[in-house]
Design goal:
The complex is a heterodimer of chains A (210) and B (225).
Chain A: E1 4-8, H1 13-24, E2 30-33, H2 45-48, E3 58-61, E4 64-67, H3 69-80, H4 94-105, H5 109-120, H6 126-149, H7 162-172, H8 185-195
Helix pairs in contact in A: 1-3, 1-7, 4-7, 5-6, 6-8
Chain B: E1 7-12, E2 21-26, E3 29-35, E4 41-45, E5 59-61, E6 64-66, E7 73-74, E8 80-82, E9 99-100, E10 102-105, E11 108-112, E12 129-137, H1 141-150, E13 161-166, E14 169-174, E15 177-187, E16 190-198, H2 203-218
Antiparallel strand pairs in B: 1-11, 2-3, 3-4, 4-9, 5-6, 6-7, 7-8, 10-11, 12-16, 13-14, 14-15, 15-16
The chains are: A alpha+beta (210), B mainly beta (225).
Bound molecules: FE2/S2 (inorganic) cluster (FES).
FE2/S2 (inorganic) cluster binds at residues 48, 50-51, 53, 67, 69-70, 72 of chain B.
């Protein structure tokens, strides 16, 4: 397969989602560092020609461009994970994996936006975004509380999937916008488990316990 | 700030693993709750004596809690033992944490209001309890007690029988189910309910009951018909 290039910004949470899977699956790739702040390079004509949405991350492989973190995660897992578990296409857990992946792309993006407003001082209604982020974390904590009672450790299956991977960053970074972890005990245990998986990497805002 | 009352619940025991830390707020007082590698729980003020960083953001190394900011390490008595920038330094006795008494009773970690809080004042031991969950809600203590009293436990239609064990610990019984509710007052209209039940009780159903309870707890009073 031709070389894979990730268009990425170091402090961008959705870019981190893709970096995390690239690291955990050990996928070789090149990185194009986009000057998102202050340059807004992702909105430049050259990059809009590749990704018309003007968003990060996106990947380019040969003539193919994929934008949207969740689609990229699914694509990378599909073609690079011999275990077939990160994206369990042929397993009964496929549907729940897709549901939680959709949750990461949907309600949980309030947390992504809350962090952008708090850290990058871009426009937005912080208190409303925080309330929406808290509501999303509660849905996740309620789910993992019930999973814990059933003796399960991951969101969608008996093993970690790209759903866990897509959900983790917002919770791990929630202190950036002043939402603490103490109200979400089941998510705390889950985050700790995930951090111990091979290939886990952090980003600024997620402590490295060296 | 000093936490009140004499003993306040701060977490379910099974949700704080050995060698981890978490924050907890008791009536505005910010605490760090952590377990050392031997599994013993400790409760301190959530503030590093160095520059005031939250210790709950830190990490456990053996029987030391390390601050995330500059890595100062504190032993289980709260005494600073290691300053990475000055590894040879014999750390002065004066650099120490504000510690609080801590205890585990009935599946719950309790924080004392002082270093010397009297363990004799902890609730009596109840055998054979299993964890349900902790529930965090924006609600006052009075309202929580009223709603707990009025809400049937799963599988039973009558309101539960209530027994007040202490000001922040109650028991709800209905049929063969007994639910123990330890209430952590976090501040103005913010609290956590730490729930344990008797062995054999429907734990998943009780966790769902608690999830539904949160809706009632957070519904403005006028709307509670
Ligand atoms: S603030 Fe804790 S070590 Fe500096």
């Amino acid at each position: 397969m031709s070389a894979l290039t990730l268009y990425n910004y170091e402090l961008d949470e959705n870019s981190y989602r893709v970096r995390l899977l690239l690291s955990m699956l050990g996928i070789e790739h090149d990185v194009y560092s986009v000057n998102m702040l202050p340059g807004r390079e992702e909105k430049s004509p050259a990059l809009l020609a590749l990704n018309p949405c003007g968003t990060l991350p996106f990947i380019k492989q040969g003539d193919t461009v994929l934008f949207g973190a969740e689609a990229i995660l699914a694509h990378l897992a599909r073609h690079n994970d011999a275990s077939g578990k990160w994206l369990p296409i042929d397993r009964p857990d496929f549907s729940t994996t897709m549901m939680w992946l959709g949750f990461a792309a949907g309600p949980l993006q309030a947390a992504v936006k809350a962090r952008e407003v708090a850290v990058f001082a871009v426009g937005g209604h912080l208190e409303r975004l925080k309330a929406d982020a808290r509501a999303a974390f509660r849905i996740m904590d309620d789910h993992m509380t019930l999973r814990h009672i059933e003796g399960k450790e991951w969101f969608a299956a008996d093993y970690p999937t790209i759903a866990d991977l897509a959900l983790i960053p917002s919770f791990a970074l929630s202190r950036d916008f002043n939402i603490d972890h103490e109200e979400f005990p089941a998510l705390r245990l889950w985050l700790r488990r995930f951090r111990r998986l091979p290939g886990f990497i952090t980003m600024p805002g997620i402590p490295d316990y060296h | 700030m000093t936490p009140q009352p004499i003993w306040s619940p701060v977490a379910l025991s099974n949700m704080v693993d050995p060698s981890t830390s978490t924050g907890a707020v008791v009536n505005g007082a910010e605490l760090v709750v952590w377990r050392d590698s031997s599994g013993k729980a400790h409760v301190w003020e959530d503030r590093c004596p160095h520059r005031g960083m939250r210790m709950s953001f830190g990490f456990v190394r053996g029987d030391h809690l390390a601050c995330l900011y500059h890595g100062w390490q504190y032993d289980t008595a709260g005494q600073c033992r290691h300053i990475p920038a000055h590894p040879q330094l014999d750390v002065p006795q004066t650099i120490r944490m504000q510690t609080f008494a801590s205890a585990e009773r009935n599946g719950i970690i309790w924080a004392g209001s002082t270093t010397e809080a009297d363990p004799a004042l902890l609730p009596a031991e109840i055998a054979g309890l299993v964890p349900v969950r902790s529930l965090y809600a924006d609600c006052t203590m009075e309202k929580a007690l009223a709603i707990l009293a009025a809400t049937p436990l799963p599988g039973v239609s009558d309101a539960p029988k209530i027994e007040t064990i202490s000001e922040n610990y109650i028991s709800l019984t209905a049929g063969a189910t007994r639910l123990l509710v330890a209430i952590q007052s976090m501040g103005d209209a913010k609290l956590a309910l730490h729930l344990m039940a008797n062995e054999g009780a429907p734990i998943a159903a009780l966790a769902r009951y608690a999830q539904a309870l949160r809706l009632a707890l957070e519904t403005p009073l006028a709307e509670v018909a």
